[in-house]
From TrEMBL:
It comes from the Bacteria. This is DUF112 domain-containing protein. It comes from Azospirillum lipoferum (strain 4B). Pfam families: TctA. Residues 20-438 form the DUF112 domain. Keywords: Membrane, Plasmid, Transmembrane, Transmembrane helix. Coiled coil: none annotated.
């Protein structure tokens, strides 16, 4: 009952004309950005962090939530009409969605994606409403040792999940941890890694790093790899409404995709890639016409798109209740909380209930706004695909540079922005994930603080981290995430060599 009362108060916050305006701006910008190929929600939120610096926190996060959901919606347009998924969660949608577009059924593919996203987003937001407070109650049992273990889990989770190579992920993480050490040590008062630059005594601004890695680095990478040739956009033909058969083939995949997306998105090793692929496999297994998969099956668009949007709400559950980011966008939103001096977790629900519940309520509102934006105005969004790429990328670079300068009005921030941007470009070229760097920069100093606090309380006894059951369990999971893939890889390599040896003797 307390949850429903808190949600009701959240709706009062979200439905004020001022916050409703920011929600509408967020979903519109998010959809427009999601439509543009190569620009995802993480880059957009990073780009807008400096702009919202002086905005009231509740309104800023209502807008960020709208951008997040909107970009998930908009990503399907690019995947279906251009076969160019801007986000990893839209890769599966492109397989059959683009095949439908080539057959002249692009409008139906976009419709099932939009309606499925609305249904999945609404159900998953309802799940978030009731799951997040339960996770908060669990987090209230935490002391300094448990919080340190939780942050270690967050760091290893993002490192192990967001990338193909554990070594590259750890390299990105250690870069972020090193950047987090810059500034004055809060315990001793000594300057660390400031190199005599007064502007570095306050530390490196997380917003500058986030914009540098995601906006500058990503844009330079996409611009360097793209040949700027005019791509073929498949026009929308015939009726833009789904037939009765389309509805009958879509509604079950929408629900199944939602059931897969939310819980997997909420897991530390979740994200949107796993549930979308699982949804595709489930729908192919249950389909009456499995031979259509890969050639334009509407179920293969409906299920994965629902899973993609449900996972977005799932990602917000650990972020808001535990401060645990499980995706690149969640890492950037964590940087946004840091920008306002806020730390997601159980204390946030008590200290800023208007922000948390206003943001959750705005997700319901945003879902309705997105449905109204996407179904009737899909033709308008398609026109964004013809914007010349040089204009687009040049605009992003100028906008990010001006935004970073306005944070503190000093040139040092600009130098850091472009150095970090070039590092981010190099990381993308070498296939090093950038999200662990942002998470390391944010959570590194907090983990150090909790580590020192736990040792102070235990009078220097380091076993406090393994004698507390919750802390020991979290550290064991973190160790499993790091060691597990290495053991599996070695076992597969041994099995492959044994198999090769048997075939050679035969």
């Amino acid at each position: 009952m307390d949850t429903l009362a808190a949600l009701g108060h959240g709706f009062l916050v979200a439905l004020t004309p001022y916050n409703l305006l920011w929600s509408a701006i967020g979903v519109t910008v998010g959809t427009a950005v999601g439509v543009l190929p190569g620009i995802g929600p993480a880059l957009t939120v990073a780009l807008l962090l400096p702009v919202t610096y002086h905005l009231e926190p509740t309104s800023a996060f209502i807008m960020f939530a709208g951008i997040y959901y909107g970009a998930m919606y908009g990503g399907s347009t690019t995947s279906i009409l251009l076969n160019a998924p801007g986000e990893s969660g839209s890769i599966v949608t492109a397989i059959d969605g683009h095949a439908m577009a080539r057959q002249g059924r692009g409008a139906q593919a976009l419709a099932t994606a939009a309606i499925g996203s609305f249904i999945a987003g609404t159900i998953a937001t309802a799940a978030l409403t009731f799951v997040a407070p339960l996770m908060v109650k669990m987090a209230l049992l935490f002391g300094p040792a448990e919080y340190f273990a939780l942050m270690v889990l967050a760091l290893t989770t993002v490192t192990a999940v967001l990338g193909n190579s554990l070594a590259r992920g750890l390299g990105s993480l250690f870069l972020g941890l090193a950047l987090g050490l810059v500034g004055i040590d809060m315990q001793t008062g000594q300057a660390r890694l400031a190199f005599g630059v007064p502007e570095l005594l306050d530390g490196i601004d997380t917003v500058v790093v986030a914009v540098g890695l995601f906006a500058v680095g990503e844009t330079l990478y996409v611009a360097s790899r793209f040949r700027f040739e005019r791509e073929e956009v498949y026009a929308l033909k015939g009726s833009k409404w789904m037939s009765r058969e389309d509805w009958s083939r879509s509604w079950k995949p929408w629900l199944r995709g939602t059931l897969l997306g939310f819980p997997i998105g909420a897991l530390p090793a979740g994200g949107s890639e796993i549930p979308t692929f699982l949804s595709y496999l489930v729908e192919k297994r249950l389909a009456k016409k499995p031979e259509e998969f890969g050639h334009g099956a509407i179920e293969a668009v409906a299920g994965p798109e629902a899973a993609n949007n449900a996972s977005a709400a799932g990602v917000l559950a650990p972020l808001l209740s535990l401060g645990l980011p499980t995706s690149a966008t969640a890492a950037i939103m964590l940087a946004a909380f840091q920008q306002y001096g806020l730390q997601p977790g159980p204390t946030l629900f008590d200290s800023n209930p208007e922000l948390v519940w206003g943001m959750i309520a705005s997700l319901y509102v945003g879902n309705v706004l997105l449905l109204l934006l996407n179904l009737p105005l899909v033709g308008m969004w398609v026109k964004l695909l013809v914007i010349p790429r040089p204009w687009l990328y040049a605009g992003i670079l100028v906008f990010s540079t001006l935004g970073a300068y306005t944070l503190n009005n000093n040139v040092v921030d600009l130098v850091i922005l472009w150095v970090i941007g070039l590092v981010g470009f190099g990381m993308r070229v070498l296939n090093v994930p950038v999200a662990p760097c942002v998470v390391g920069l944010i959570l590194g100093p907090l983990a150090e603080q909790q580590f020192r606090r736990a040792l102070a309380i235990s009078q220097g006894d380091a076993t406090v981290f393994i004698t507390h059951p919750i802390s020991a369990a979290l550290l064991a999971i973190a160790l499993l995430l790091v060691v597990g893939p290495l053991v599996m890889r070695r076992r597969n390599r041994t099995a492959a060599s044994d198999h090769a040896g048997k075939t050679s003797t035969v």
